[in-house]
Amino acid sequence: MRDSEILVTHHKALMELSHDADFIEQPRHHKLAALTELCARRLNVERVSIWSFPPKGDRINCEWLYDASAAPPDRANTGGPLSLYQSEHPAYFATISTERVVAVDNAQEDSRTRSFASNYLAIHNINAMLDAPIFDGARMSGVICLESRNHRLWSPPDISLAVAVADTVSLMNTHEAWIRSKQALDYVTRFDSLTGLANMDSLRDRINHLIRKVRKRDRGGLGLIWIDIDRLKIINDGLGPQAGDQVIAEVGRRLNDLQLTGKDFLARIGGDEFAVIIRNKTLPELLVSAAELIQQRIRSPIRVNEQDLIISASLGISHFPGDCDDGEELLRSAEAAMYHSKYRGRGQSTQYDSEIQMTARSRFAVESELRLAMENDGLDVFYQPIMDSTGTRIESAEALVRWHHPDRGWLSPIEFLDVARSAGLMYRLGECVVERVCRDWRACRAKGINLATISVNLAPEQVMVSGLPGLIRDVCGSYAMPVSALQFEVTEDALQGELRVLSRVLEDLVDSGAMLAIDDFGTGYSSLARLKCLPFSRIKIDRSFIRHLPDDDNDRAITLSTIGLARGLGLSIVAEGVETQAHERWLFENHCDYLQGFRYSKPLPIEELTRRFYSTEPLILSHQRH
Q1: C-alpha separations of 446 from 382, 415, 440, 443, 475 in Å
Q2: CA distances from 420 to 317, 337, 347, 369, 414 (A)
Q3: In the chain, what is the straight-line distance between the N-terminal and C-terminal CA atoms, in Å?
């Protein structure tokens, strides 16, 4: 038979095998067994093996070996672990990497392969070798090796079949790589990379699957517990995002290990949020018991950066059927109950009910209306005067945002600031306040009224944005107002951010002309080391330490120490919450620089502030004592 006819029959046999449905569905080792056996039988060789290079390429490992002499003689086998190293066989490795196909009729004598003679070829009585390359994409990842115990000249049909089988294995590699990449993509899209837990998409699928089963069987039920880690932002800002990730990962591990009756599925569904599905054990008392176990497990100290952190979580509980009609409603109900827990003071668990449903709808409406108000200049700013130490002369004024809702009337900040924070609107809200202050300042200047310095509060969401100083300069510039007419108040909690970013933002504000004050001093988590390296010029003592002056010994000691601290750091000091003559007298006698509170005025619209405190006539206050 001519070579061309032999080649055709070889390739026909290979095509019939590789396109057979049974072959396609087989696992890899079964395919390698079939391919090596076909190659051995068609070419009448005793051994056919598949070898692979590891990524470094410093050796070659036997993945599969067909040996016709093995018992039973027609069975393929791996032949056990076997590796051949480049350091011991440099000529072979150089040849296979350049020539690709190595056809040797006398392997024990050929310069390319004789290094294998003593410890491989002679042992197996191999005299002829034919190797063809196997690829994984563009990288040569291995070879198919045909070994004959006879001296043999390899014909073109022999080489053609060996290369074709090697190409078939290469195609298998490509397909398997695609399967692996698809699995990796499925993992990324279905699982959380930090905790290894399922994500929200997986949770939704599981909920919908279980709801279908409940409806089909017309019995059973499921509960959903939504878990939100409290105050994780403070950990991220104070200790860095890696510390926050450690907390999230540890909470995920604890929840995964926690044994709960009826526990079916656990997912990480957001940055600091998890959810647990409870099946068939959905009586209220059982769900409350599960929530209590979750709370206990989370509260155990977590060691991060040589510190023991005590973590709490707010939980919301909903169940199907009962609280909802479908999976999306189950999720929304649990989330709404979780937010209700946060309103109650964090570290709480709440079961969903109709009252919460009304609250959640109201909250959504407030968020939508707040967005609209910010876009349409619907927010107001009131000003509370800050007086000198005698309480007779205005030194500055604090700008406080107010919202006159078209249907609900005046809303206090507590009614909408938390909505703004959870909706990610604090930065935009701050921009609206600064713009309104600038507009009021310009209107007063047009009337010949020179306002004293205006203090504006900065939220934590603002002070960590590097573009904030530029925004302030742009807004002030558009109203021809100098940045030096502003003072910014920052709470201690807002100072827990990454120091380098925080310092750069605050320094830029000061360089632009603004002054900085620490608001609500004594209630947050700032350290003296952090305070001394940030450009503050003023401290505001929180009203909680002023309320019981001068009678409370602890409040006196705290206020005196704060005044002393300010003096030592060269800072001025403001007492907030001054309401009585006794407050005023004691603070004056102990050298507090400035006073703020209802003793002098509640927050006022700009027109009333200027009428009362910027009159051309001398300001006479009925309570004047000094």
Answers
A1: 19, 34, 10, 5, 18
A2: 24, 19, 21, 11, 10
A3: 124
Helix %, strand %, coil % of the chain (to 5): 45, 20, 30
Is 336:360 a contact under the CB 8 Å cutoff?
yes
Residue 357 is predicted with a pLDDT of 60
Beta strands in 31-138 (DSSP E): 47-52, 59-67, 76-77, 83-85, 102-104, 128-136
Cβ burial of 550 (10 Å; 0-12, 13-18, 19+) is middle
Which residues are registered as beta bridge partners of 258?
Answer: none
C-alpha radius of gyration, the chain, whole number: 38
For residues 150, 153, 156, 162, the Cα torsion angle rounded to the nearest 10 degrees is 40
Alpha carbons 111 and 85: distance in angstroms, whole number: 16
Cβ distance 126 to 47 under 8 Å? yes
Please state, in angstroms and rounded to a whole number, the distance separating the CA atoms of residues 165 and 171. Answer: 10
The DSSP string of 76-94 is EE--S--EEETTT-HHHHH
pLDDT tens sequence across 528-538: 666 777 899 99
This prediction's pTM = 0.51
Residue 604 per-residue DSSP state: B
Question: Considering Cα of 101, then 105, then 108, then 109, what sign does the dihedral take?
Answer: negative
Backbone region of residue 113 per phi and psi (left: phi > 0; alpha: psi in -120 to 50; beta: other values): alpha
pLDDT in tens, 226-266: 999 988 877 776 677 788 899 999 999 999 999 988 899 99
Contacting residues for 524 by C-beta, under 8 A, at least 6 apart: 491, 492, 493, 495, 496
Long-range (24+ apart) CB contacts under 8 A made by 549-555 are 549/582, 549/583, 549/586, 549/587, 550/582, 550/583, 550/586
CA angle centred on 248, ends 351 and 319, rounded to 5°? 20
User: What's the rounded Cα separation, in Å, for the pair 237 and 247?
Assistant: 13
CA angle 547, 548, 551 (to 5 degrees): 155
- Identify the top-confidence range among 69-83, 347-361, 511-525, 593-607: 593-607
Is the previous residue joined to 385 through a cis bond, with omega within 30 degrees of 0? no
141 contacts 154 by C-beta, under 8 angstroms: no
> Per the omega criterion (within 30 degrees of 0), is the bond before 81 cis?
no
- The DSSP bridge pattern shows strands 83-85 and 409-411 to be unpaired
- Interior/surface letters 88-121, b for 16+ CB within 10 angstroms, e for the rest: ebeebbebbeeeebbbbbebbebebbbbbeeebb
What tokens does 307 get?
């510190």
Residue pair 479/441 in contact by the 8 Å Cβ criterion? yes
Is cis: bond before 550, omega within 30 of 0?
yes
Pairing of strands 349-351, 307-309: unpaired
Provide the token pair at 622: 């009925």
CA distance 172 to 170: 5
Q: Provide φ and ψ at 430, rounded to 5°.
A: -60, -40
Yes or no: say if 49 and 36 are a contact pair by the CB < 8 Å rule.
yes
Q: Give the pair of three-digit tokens for residue 553.
A: 């010994």
Asked if 578 contacts 385 with a C-beta cutoff of 8 angstroms, the reply is no
State yes or no: pLDDT of 514 exceeds 70. Answer: yes
